[in-house]
């Protein structure tokens, strides 16, 4: 199913919020083929009940990139991804309210009682979000050395890679299990509906209609029942 001028490609994120996002997309009227729900399916692009709409399933960090470069017209991405990449080609008109978590600075539980973040002048952190981390610390006049990791970030302090991390936190259980505690809050995170600005400009009625559909779902409280 190659992309053509009449088709609409919707990018959805694999990972922790896929179930919530999938339920919301179904409520919006986009019904993917059965293979989409099959965990053993190897395909990443799926037909839907509308022959002019296809769904792709990609890494959560890649959704914004697919939309920014026009490979997808619409997507759902976490605010963390949008903050990290800050693509000017991406417009995020609707806060969907699902996938709630927070982006924080955490450090070892042994260090925290005697540590004062307001006195930091230099920090080394392991993180999946080097751009966000640098902006956060630079705003306070703190020089940040960011070690980019794509996973298992909570292991970094215990293995001597650094003493602090910047990462997403939901319940805090993973931090606790790895001997870490939150010491700074950076941002609250939820999933956002995002659209490609050129798609919106060239097809305002089509894209605008989908924006209205998702906005109406949020206003009607549908995102709460999807979570």
Notes on the protein architecture:
There is one protein chain. The chain has 227 residues and is an alpha/beta fold. It has two domains: 8-99 and 190-226, Periplasmic binding protein-like II (D-Maltodextrin-Binding Protein, domain 2), CATH 3.40.190; 101-187, Periplasmic binding protein-like II (D-Maltodextrin-Binding Protein, domain 2, 3-Layer(aba) Sandwich), CATH 3.40.190. 28% of the residues lie in helices and 30% in strands. The chain has helices at 18-27, 63-68, 79-85, 130-138, 173-177, 197-202, 204-219, 222-226; strands spanning 8-13, 45-47, 53-58, 74-78, 90-95, 101-108, 122-127, 143-148, 164-169, 180-189, 191-196. The strands form two sheets. Strands 2-3-1-4-11-5 form a six-stranded mixed sheet. Strands 8-7-9-6-10 form a five-stranded mixed sheet. It is elongated, with a radius of gyration of 19 Å. The two termini are 31 Å apart.
Question: Which short descriptors sum up this protein?
Answer:
D-Maltodextrin-Binding Protein, domain 2; 227 residues; 11 strands; alpha/beta; 2 domains; 6-stranded mixed sheet; 28% helix; 5-stranded mixed sheet; 30% strand
Describe the SSE topology:
Blueprint: E1 8-13, H1 18-27, E2 45-47, E3 53-58, H2 63-68, E4 74-78, H3 79-85, E5 90-95, E6 101-108, E7 122-127, H4 130-138, E8 143-148, E9 164-169, H5 173-177, E10 180-189, E11 191-196, H6 197-202, H7 204-219, H8 222-226
Parallel strand pairs: 1-3, 1-4, 7-8, 7-9
Antiparallel strand pairs: 2-3, 4-11, 5-11, 6-9, 6-10
């Amino acid at each position: 199913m190659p992309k053509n001028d009449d088709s609409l490609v919707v990018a959805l994120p694999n990972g922790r919020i896929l179930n919530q996002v999938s339920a919301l997309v179904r409520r919006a009227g986009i019904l993917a083929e059965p293979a989409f729900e099959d965990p053993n399916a190897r395909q990443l692009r799926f037909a839907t009940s509308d022959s002019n709409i296809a769904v792709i399933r990609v890494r959560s960090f890649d959704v914004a990139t697919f939309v920014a470069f026009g490979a997808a017209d619409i997507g759902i991405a976490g605010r963390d991804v949008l903050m990290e990449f800050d693509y000017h080609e991406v417009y995020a008109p609707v806060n969907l309210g699902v996938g709630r978590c927070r982006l924080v600075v955490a450090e070892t539980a042994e260090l925290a009682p005697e540590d004062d973040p307001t006195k930091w002048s230099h920090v080394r952190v392991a993180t999946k979000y080097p751009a966000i981390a640098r902006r956060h610390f630079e705003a306070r006049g703190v020089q940040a050395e960011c070690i980019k990791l794509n996973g298992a970030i909570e292991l970094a302090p215990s293995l001597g890679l650094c003493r602090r991390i910047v990462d997403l936190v939901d319940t805090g259980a993973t931090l606790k299990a790895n001997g870490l505690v939150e010491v700074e809050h950076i941002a609250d995170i939820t999933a956002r509906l995002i659209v490609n600005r050129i798609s919106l400009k060239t097809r305002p009625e089509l894209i605008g209609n989908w924006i209205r559909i998702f906005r109406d779902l949020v206003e009607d409280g549908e995102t709460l029942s999807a979570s």
